Amino acid sequence: MNRSTARVIPLSAAIKTTVDRIEQRYHNRRTRDSFSTGFRSLDDMIGRFHPGDLVAVLSDGPDLATAFQLSSVHALVARHRVPALFVSARHDETYVVTKLLSIESGIREIELRSAMLDAVHRSALTASASALNAAPLHIASIDAVTLEESIHTLPQAVTDDDGRAAGPVFIDAPMYHRSAELVLRRLRDTTNDHGRPIVLSGRATPEQRDAWQSDRWFDVILQVSLAEVDSKLVQVDVLQNRHGTIGAAYLQYDPHHSLVHDIEDAPMSWMDLFTSLQTINARHGETLRRLGEGAQ
Question: Under 8 Å CB-to-CB from 251, ≥6 apart: which residues?
Fold first, then answer.
């Protein structure tokens, strides 16, 4: 006969245990070895990326998952200067860099790909290329059709100047049921060996997630989809999270620039800056020139 056990403790002891856990999570979020997701609202919910995390970013369509990943990558390397590695088995490096240039410059992707640029576009493109040139990002474009093939060519983890493990690895590659367990086992081993968070994007239905036994392999599972209430919003459902809560976060989506960002953010792009300067010059250029001459 099984016996059930109960533990009776005073409230003071329960409070101490709970506060200690909260404090530990707080310090984990502030440690240099945790990495922002690139989105403040998501950081608050999942507690950032941590060394050894295996994170799934699942979506109904590959374009949205790629936009989510590259927006996260851009925020990390361009804003926070965190080293990162982006591995793509879907697209070559020119395709990836064009998307990053669109995010940084504010020029629509279709205009970049068709080279339909005026003088302001070209100024913004030059400035954004210069800014991204200093970003600590490596891109691995792999000629492979499945994630199982891609995993064999993952570059060796690099370290930063302090000798610590560098930032997250983002992998954008197809995954199929027949190879899912083998691939996920190898990715799990890689996170344990190198201590780098690995963020894997893919397309998976609830049935496929169950077939892969996703909760067995992943520390964090994010389901990314367009919100039903507004197609310009991305709903991020946190289905599994070993660092904190589960629930839903909402982000803003701009498909023309493959940009996903916090709702309260209004990112200032190079196009915004140069357009504003052009407008100011057209309206007040003569006045500014006179003021400049007077100052001399």
Answer: 39, 41, 42, 233, 234, 236, 260, 261, 262, 263
Domain 37-286 belongs in CATH node 3.40.50.300 = yes
Domain boundaries, the chain: 37-286
User: Is the separation of the CB atoms in 256 and 107 below 8 Å?
Assistant: no
Q: Which helix (H) or strand (E) holds 84?
A: strand 84-88
| pTM of structure | 0.77
53-62 burial, b if ≥16 CB within 10 A, otherwise e? bbbbbbbeeb
Other Cβ atoms closer than 10 A to 3: 4
- At 165, the amino acid letter reads A
Q: What is the pLDDT of residue 162?
A: 47
Average pLDDT, the chain: 79
* Angstrom distances, CA of residue 78 to CA of 20, 174, 179, 268: 35, 27, 34, 13
